Amino acid sequence: MSSEQIRRDLQDQLAAHQVRNQGIASSPAHAFSAPARVNLIGEHTDYTGGFVLPLAIGFRTIAVVTPRSDDQAVLYSSNFNETAQYDLRSLALPPRGHWSDYPIGVAWGLQQQGIRLTGFNLSIDGNVPLGSGLSSSASIEVATAMALLDHSRSSLTGEQIALLCQKIENVYVGSPCGIMDQFVITNAIDKHALMLDCRSLSFDHLPLATDARIVICNSMVKHSIADGEYGDRRGEVERGQEILRQRNPAIQLLRDATIADLEAARTEMSEASYRRCKHIITENDRVIQTREALTAGDERRFGQLMFTAHASMRDDFAASCEEIDALVEIARTLPGCLGARITGGGFGGCTVNLVDAAHAEEFALNLKAKYREQYGIDAQTYVCEAVDGALARATQ
Ligand code: ADP
Ligand code: MG
User: Fold this and answer.
1) Ligand 1: which atom is nearest the Cα of residue 169?
2) CB 308 within 8 A of CB 75
3) Pocket of ligand 1, candidates 59, 102, 127, 382: which has the most ligand atoms within 8 Å of its Cβ, to mutate?
4) Spelled out in words, what is the top-level CATH class assigned to the domain 3-207?
5) What is the per-residue pLDDT across 87-111, written as a single tens digit (0 to 9) for each?
6) What class does CATH assign to 212-384?
């Protein structure tokens, strides 16, 4: 699907949404939106204070908020065609295990910060593929946060919004994600990727070359990030990090460790912890090299770093799968392909490809065709542009 088609789809959805929205909302309605994201490089580095390099992409979740005269939160998602109702005077854990956990979690999180919420209707619609690794979860959180901040006449900085939404996903929904998704979805600007230092939360907007395209391919092999494997990997990483920390107090987070530190501690940790930590230490280095490559306009070097990063996710982090590996290998053979790798938490989801602009559409078609030949699965491909995050859009 081209970005033009995505834009048209979203416009159609917005028009349909306005019609449906009249069912639960009376005017005045305020609309906010948040994009999806894809990570170019820096996978599983965020929760150990490392570097990531994502961009916001042109799918959006829209949140339309209208006030109510009572203390109820009435939530509607047109993606599920379902309404959920909560009493704002008694929001509390545990979550229901339902899509409404995400938006009501935001209301709960705002209340926890002392922000008073009066009744509201919140109507949500979006074209972010759900559960595909493009972070529809952070998109719905950030869109909701923007809407509810407006509703409560409060404001937070981009960093505070990202931290609030991460907390909701961790504590309220119960999914152990890092800060990357919420941060880029809030703070991105168009035509740029965002390099984020996940420890200090300082960031740089890095310009993307105009003669290369980002092509995302959804393998259609589904994963749920809240499931066991993500938590297992995270546990293995954190146990390795703890051993390194005990050996050398200067290592607070894995981000502070070198490969030499890891090798010295190898016999003290499980093989799994060693390999997971090795991926993260080398990946942080690759993100720094990618910043250099992007700054120098060296797309070939960037592409090579993506291939290496994929091998590291596959071999050391053990978070790839057969279909994703096949997509990367097919991509490598196609004209115009500069780099390809798995993106997102792992175990399925999407690949991200760096492709010469002139070949991008043809690349997407060929990748789909060859994948279908091999697996009988119809992949989804998207030729993407880097778009504005929720904050840039709201302040325009
Ligand atoms: P990902 O973030 O990769 O898309 P997750 O499993 O983390 O996958 O989050 C997907 C979940 O987020 C959905 O199953 C749903 O509960 C919630 N969600 C995302 N977007 C919407 C939406 N537009 N309407 C309702 N729920 C949504
Ligand atoms: Mg998610």
Assistant:
1) 7
2) no
3) 102
4) alpha beta
5) 999 999 999 999 999 999 999 999 9
6) alpha beta
